[in-house]
Amino acid sequence: MITGKNYIGNQLSALGKTTYKTFNPQLNIENKHVFTEATPEEIDKALRLANDAFKVFQSVSGAKKSEFLNAIADEILALDDELIKTYCSETGLPEGRAQGERGRTVFQLRSFADLVLEGSWVEAAIDTAQPDRTPMPKPDIRKMLTPLGPVVVFGASNFPLAYSTAGGDTAAALAAGCPVIVKSHPMHAGTGELVASAIIKAVQKTGMPEGVFSNLNSSGISVGERLVKLPHVKAVGFTGSIKGGRALYNMAAQRDEPIPVFAEMGSINPVVILPEALHTRKESLAKTYAGSITLGTGQFCTNPGLILGIKGADLVEFVEILSEEIIKIDPTCMLHPNIHQTYNRNKEAALSQKGLHVAADFNTQVKNNYAKQTVTTVSGQVFLENTQLHQEVFGPYSMVVQCENIDELERVITKLEGQLTGTILGEERELSKYTNIVNALQNRVGRLIFNGVPTGVEVCPSMVHGGPYPASTDSRFTAVGIHSIKRWVRPVSFQNWPNQLLPDALKNENPLQISRLVNNQNTTDKIS
């Protein structure tokens, strides 16, 4: 049941007077539930509880954390139709999308549950002492990863489940041993509260300390600002706009104790079509990309917003086919009127740029909050000269850049900002001819795709969902998959520490039976 209140630890609270409602973009009306904005007192209490919980939670065993994460997954599934209906009413997205995202969220939680149960993720490394070494004795040194402390997670507008309350950031932080305070996204506060209730039930059922999780409502920026500035917070997770992510990053850097902000932000996800593929597969590629550009109304961070090719008859024909195919697709609803308005505003700003030409623009009347898809085209030279054209238009929009030759194509790629993905469409035999293009693209992205579409991010250990700035604030980490846990930990060494006082992961007898690096050899053996 949705109450519209904040979860401060295990308790519901509504001390504030500022309220707001979510919005149903399909019906173009407000939803019925009223949500109460968290007060400074509630924020401070949530942080105190989180800090107290950390003293216990950081040492909770992998087996108990695994039980906790699996319990969260079970409780989310137990929400059943209420969660799906609320999700749809707050996003305008269909039930199939809601069910798929719920499945992804549950899978992420169970993946982290398996990770911490096995335990080797702590990267235990042991170098035993050599007291007789000359000219200086070698001490016993042992290292492992340890949690940072309370983490603030900002819910994402475009993924109310998989990147929000119990999404990848939260799951990874809890797996690491960090309490989490979620700043719920105001566009789907009802979905967020339902998921928060599932987490609190899991907290209580598995005996986790109160304060290991809180969920705070906010329609503006003041709650988020206070959270990032408070001293107990040790890291921040964010998925959203460059403007929002950069503001949090700057705020965190200006604290007396700066903290990391792991923000996944904007990306136009360049797609390079090599000449042979363009010549032989232009029709099928155009149809495929018409679908990818409009998938989810273009509201994915991996939406292909930029297509690059060599000027000529084949590229002209590709643009024509792409334009024909994309107009055949019925427009769909965006997540919120504000997102729809921003899409139209950013699109108009792009269309006003000199040298840009509209290839396809859906001009039939559509329902409120439905986005009209657009394809534009521009020369490589104009694109290089006008960096305004490099900016993301969040929605069903894509630009085709017609480069004069391979050299200009390489210059265009080199001038791009950091991206989440980069795609090469070509024949295998072509790749060896264009190593400069491949290398240039690899240097700008976190994930390099061959003959596919960037939309769709598989949750697996090999996935990198991040990239050079501004795709993310730290390109060394991924926001998806089990390795995303590394954002919420730091390495600690123990020198000449008594064996019985060491963490279990570092003890001679290896009670956890995990894989460890002992004197440069990977092993699960005990140390005699």
Biggest sheet descriptor:
7 strands, mixed
Count of helical segments? 15
Radius of gyration over all CA atoms, rounded: 25 Å
Q: What does the overall shape look like?
A: globular
Structural class: alpha/beta
In short:
A hairpin with a 4-residue loop joins strand 3 (19-24) and strand 4. The radius of gyration is 25 Å and the shape is globular.
How would you describe this structure to a colleague?
The protein is α/β, with parallel strands linked by helices and 528 residues long. 37% of the residues lie in helices and 20% in strands. It is built from 15 helices and 21 strands. The chain has helices at 40-57, 62-78, 80-91, 95-118, 168-176, 189-206, 222-229, 242-253, 275-294, 313-328, 337-351, 380-385, 406-415, 428-431, 435-442, and strands at residues 6-8, 11-13, 19-24, 29-36, 125-127, 141-147, 151-154, 180-183, 213-216, 235-239, 261-264, 270-273, 306-310, 357-361, 374-379, 397-403, 419-425, 445-450, 489-495, 516-518, 521-523. Strands 14-15-16-13-12-17-18 form a 7-stranded mixed sheet, sandwiched between helices. The chain is globular.
